[in-house]
Design goal:
heterodimer, A: 405 residues, 13 helices, B: 240 residues, alpha/beta, Rossmann fold, five-stranded antiparallel β-sheet, 7 helices, 30% helix, globular
């Protein structure tokens, strides 16, 4: 009950000086909204990176032909040795840490369907590919191992192709001609959006690898192998295991250089993530400093308030207030003032974040933890910077303060 | 009549640099319950010092002070605060009402610090105190909406609300015109008639004649302590 009354009188004292209270909390308002907005920008870019990693596929390992050496005199990836399906089979058979593996055969060309045509990328894979890339279907079905086995001429379209060739219709069951070879469409993939460099991932046709290799491309070599590790935890072990299997498959002697390269996605994105983390910390520090300045503003105005209300303090002491009562009263006033600033700051940060997301290229993500932290922090600022003025008020002597003009 | 105040050799000295200043010297005062004592004297005579000591706002350098039968020398600041809350009601020259706070809430203020819950029903006590000064119909008014006399009556109600043993009024009419002053004195006289002990500090000889007894101070000494034979009675405008 005491606390309720104290809160009520604190709020009334703040409302009594609306403009002053607003100006006083301005530092906290700016500080809190800065903390939230800046961390939201950091979080936003981080979540984009994470999404990109997920888009690429969970725990994806990519095996390229050729040595990993860059620079120097090297004939370049794929020029020395190539993969065959034997490599894929061996991984399938021997690996314990990889749960899906697919060959990838890359091709491309002009695609024609009922009056429309489009030039696009065509890749041949096995059904594991969709699992590795975490890629769902908008409609239709995936192809099966049987389709692969018998080189069936079936294709799954990326959503961009589907929209270009068959605007506003379901292409399932229809036929397209890729370099004059008819393919039956069995499904359309979900949107994946743009990849890191702005390449449209949905501008693609996916077919059984045997069909692409033997009917479309010719030859017997696989371009790339994709595999996915059982879990992120064992990604590195899986990479080592794959390395051993591939060396065995290619009959490399100990000491001989690898004739292939294994990449994992975390390596690629790690640096990007680290940069954004540093950015988040840096911005957080700047915002923290502005909260500090806001706190000093509150301390300043609380000191003024204590001086202004000296006779009130004297009166309260004369009617029986203890030192602790006065201390509590002014401390609560400071905390109410700073949390009021905190709440306003949170509201402003949500609005600004909304504006940024709507009108600019940035993506911001406000984490609820961040809001809670900022709110608690603003309250703590009130306690910390309100303590000295409140203590000053509590130390006043009743006689002198009653006589104070 | 029981003693409300008894002081024995109450002395207060201040240190002004090297020189000690004797503000109050060896004061022996007895105030019985129901007394109306006027404390008089020119400025610098020790009136304020005496009031501060009696009001437990300050501690004496030496001597004893018994308030309501209890020794109140050498207590902690918290104990002093509680005594002020339970035993004493203050009335000030400048009213000292909280601005932009209703009369009701101003009167209620001492109850806010009533730690021991001596007063059971705060609302009832507040209303009663306002009734006793005839302002229960203005309890939702803000101080700035009230006249000077009304503001001082709110302050008197505030002093009454805790049901104190003693009311200390420090120049309560100093900021008021003579007609309003008389009103306030009438309120005090009526409360005194109801058994409340009042100590009125004033430098106006005229006003002191409304008390039942005068204590006169000069240079820190009590030079006179006499009962007023022909006491003035202020016309009471508030009928209760």
């Amino acid at each position: 009950m005491q606390l309720k009354k104290l809160l009520r009188s604190a709020i009334r004292n703040i409302l009594r000086n609306r403009l002053r209270s607003l100006l006083t909390s301005l530092g906290i308002i700016i500080g809190v909204s800065a903390v939230i907005i800046l961390s939201a920008i950091g979080q936003g870019s981080q979540s984009l990176i994470e999404e990109e990693i997920n888009d690429l596929g969970t725990n994806l390992l990519v095996i390229f032909p050729g040595a990993s050496r860059t620079g120097g005199v090297n004939l370049g990836a794929g020029s020395i040795n190539r993969f065959t399906y034997d490599d894929v089979e061996k991984i399938k058979k021997d690996s314990r840490l990889v749960n899906a593996v697919t060959p990838i055969v890359q091709s491309g060309g002009q695609v024609i369907a009922a009056g429309n045509n489009w030039n696009t990328e065509i890749i041949g894979v096995s059904p594991d590919y969709f699992k590795i890339r975490n890629w769902g279907l908008k409609n239709g079905r995936y192809f099966t191992d049987i389709d692969v086995k018998i080189n069936r001429k079936v294709a799954i379209l990326g959503s961009t192709i589907s929209d270009e060739l068959f605007p506003n219709q379901d292409p399932s069951g229809k036929t397209i001609r890729i370099r004059n070879i008819p393919f039956k469409i069995i499904g359309v993939l979900e949107d994946k959006g743009q990849a890191g460099m702005g390449r449209d991932q949905d501008d693609i046709i996916i077919a059984p690898w045997t069909t692409v290799l033997y009917r479309l491309k010719g030859g017997r070599y696989i371009d790339v192998i994709n595999a996915s590790a059982n879990s992120t935890e064992f990604l590195e072990q899986a990479e080592e295991e794959l390395n051993a299997i591939m060396r065995e498959s290619h009959r490399l002697n100990p000491g001989e250089e690898d004739d292939f390269t294994i990449n994992n996605q975390t390596e690629i994105t790690e640096m990007e993530t680290r940069t954004s983390k540093i950015l988040t910390w840096l911005l957080g520090t700047i915002a923290g400093v502005s909260l500090l300045v806001g706190g000093i503003g509150i301390m300043n105005i609380m000191l003024v308030t204590v001086t202004e209300r000296t006779t009130e303090i004297g009166l309260r002491l004369s009617v029986g207030a203890r030192k602790i009562d006065i201390l509590t009263q002014f401390l609560i006033e400071a905390v109410v003032l700073s949390t009021f600033g905190g709440i306003l700051g949170i509201i402003i940060s949500f609005l600004v974040s909304l504006i940024i997301n709507t009108f600019s290229g940035f993506y911001t993500l406000i984490k609820i933890e961040m809001v809670i932290v900022a709110f608690i922090f603003s309250g703590s600022v009130g306690v910390f910077f309100g303590f000295y003025p409140a203590q000053k008020a509590a130390r006043l002597n009743p006689i002198d303060s009653l006589r104070y003009e | 009549m029981p003693l409300v105040i008894e002081t024995r050799g109450l002395t207060k000295t201040y240190q002004m640099g090297e020189i000690p200043v004797y503000a109050l010297i060896n004061a022996n005062i007895k105030v019985h319950s129901g007394d109306f004592v006027a404390v008089m004297g020119p400025s610098g005579s020790g009136k304020s010092t005496l009031l501060n000591l009696l009001g437990c706002l300050d501690t004496a350098t030496s001597g004893e002070y018994l308030l309501d039968g209890k020794a109140v020398t050498s207590l902690s600041t918290n104990e002093y605060a509680d005594i002020r809350n339970q035993k004493i009601g203050f009335i000030f020259q400048g009213f000292n009402l909280l601005p932009r706070t209703s009369a009701y809430e101003n009167v209620e203020l001492p109850l806010f610090y009533d730690r021991k819950h001596r007063i059971k029903d705060h609302h009832q006590a507040t209303i009663e105190a306002l009734q006793r000064v005839g302002l229960d119909d203005r309890m939702n008014h803000m101080p700035q909406q009230l006249s000077g006399g009304q503001q001082q009556r709110v302050a008197i109600a505030r002093a009454l609300v805790n049901n104190p043993a003693l009311i200390l009024a420090d120049e309560p009419t100093g900021n008021l015109d003579s007609a309003t002053s008389l009103d306030i004195i009438a309120v005090l006289q009526r409360l005194n008639g109801q058994g409340i002990t009042i100590i009125l500090v004033t430098h106006e000889y005229q006003l002191a004649q409304y008390a039942s007894r005068i204590i006169e101070l000069k240079d820190g000494h009590i030079i006179e302590d006499k009962v007023i034979e022909e006491r003035n009675i202020a016309p009471d405008l508030i009928s209760c």
